[in-house]
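Notes from hallway chat w/ T.B., transcribed later so I don't forget. T.B. wanted the structure written out for a chain they're using in a teaching module, and asked if we could keep both sequence and C-alpha cells in one place. Agreed to drop them here.
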Amino acid sequence: MSLVGVAVAVTTTVLVAGQTPAPEPPDFGRDVMPILETNCLRCHNTAKQEGGLLLESFDDLMKGGDTGAPIVPSDADSSPLIRQVEARAKPKMPPKTDLRPEEVATLRAWVAAGAKYSPTRRVPLDEKVPAIAQTGSVLAEIPSVAFSPDGRELVAAGYKEIKRFVLADGRPQPATSSAIAGLADQVRTVAWSPDGALIAAGGGTPGAFGELVLVDAATGAVRFTLEGHRDYVYHAAFSPDGKRLASCGYDKLVRLWDTTTGKPTGVFREHTEAVYAVAFNGDGTLLASAAADRSIKVWDVASGLRLYTITEPTDAVLTLAFRPGTNELAAAGADKRIRVWTIDKAAATPVRNVLAHTATIIRLAFSADGERLASASTDRVVKVWDAANGKEVRVLGGQSDWAQALAFTPDRRRLAVGRYDGTLTLFDAATGKRVSEVIVVAGSSNRELARVDR
C-alpha cells in the first residue's frame, strides 16, 4: 500500500471512531413489556380484555383489539397507542394515571425503530462472573424432585439437565436413568403435569434471565419455552386440571401460562422481594405465593386480582403447599415455623403454628392423600408430620447436607430427598429407613450415605 493509501485509511478510521454511535433501540422483552405489565395489563388481560385488546405478549399487542392495531411499526406519530399515552388521542391511556416521561420515550423509540420482537437475551454466565475452572469432580445440587402421576418415574433438577429415573416397586432400576439436557444453567424446579404428559423445568442465570420450559415427557423434547421472567425462576406448579402453569422467581413476579399454547395469561406484581414458591388450591381457583418480603399473597386466578395478604410470618417465606383434599395451606421459611391456615376467597383462618425445626425450613411436601406432611431444614433434618393434627411422626436425621427437595410417591410409600451436595435418597415413608441411594458421591467413604436398609 502506498503512503497516500495508508494516510487515507488512517483518516477514515479516525472519522469513524470519532462518530457518536447510534443509540441501541429499546428491547421488547427487557424495556417495553415491563411498562405494559405495570401500567396496562390489569385491564388488558385474558380475564378482562377491555376493548378486545390483550397485552400479555408481543403477538397480542400487534394483533390489536376492537378498534384495530395499536401499533404502526416505524411510525410512532400514527400509532394509536403512542397517541393515547401522550394524551393526544382519546381515551387517554392509562385512564387514571400517566406514564413517566422516560416510559413514554421508551415506547415511542421502540415503535420508531420498527416495533420489533426480541426474545429474552440469555446472558452467558461469564459476562456476569469470570469463569473458574473446575479442578475436581462434584455433583450438582438437587433443588427439586417430582414423581410422575403413575409413580413409575422420578425426575430431579440438575445442572443444565433434568435427571430421569424409572422405578419399579419404588426403586430405581439399573441402567434406566437418563437426562433431558440442553438447559441453560442450574435447574431450580421440576414438576409433572397431572396427566403425566408434560414436565415443567425452571431456572436460568441469576441476575441475567429466567428460564422456563415445558418438556414433552414421552419424547424429552422441549414443547414450549416460556419467556417472561427476567431473573432466576425458583418454582413452578401446575393447576389441578393441568391447563395452567404458575411460576415465580427473583424478579419478584408471579406469572401464569397456558400449557396448551405456551402463552402467558397473567402476571402478578405485588411482592416486593423475590418470590420463592407458588401453589394452586384444590379446584384451581386460587393461587398462593410466598416471598422474601415475609408475606403470602392469595390471588384469584380468573381475575388476576390479589384477594388478601397473609403477614403472620416474621421472616422470609420459602415454601408452601396446599393440603390435598382440603382448603388448608401450609407455609414455612426462615422463622423455623410451619403455619397452617384454611383458605377461601374472603380470608385465611389460622389452624396451627408449630416451631418445627431449629433452623430455616426450605421445603414442604404433602403426600397425595393429604395424610402426611414432610419438612426439610438447613438443620439437616427431615421430618414427617401427621397433616391432620400437626403431630411429629418421624425424624430422618443425619442428612449429609441441606435437604432441598422432597416428594412422596403417589402411593405415599416412598419419600424422595434431594440434597445440596447432589445426593438423592429414597426413604420408606412409614419406617424412615433408606430404600435406595439414587445418587451418591463417587467413591464416598460415608458408610451411612452408601447404606441401604432392607
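Follow-up for T.B.: DSSP finds seven helices and 28 strands in the chain. Might be a good example for the class.
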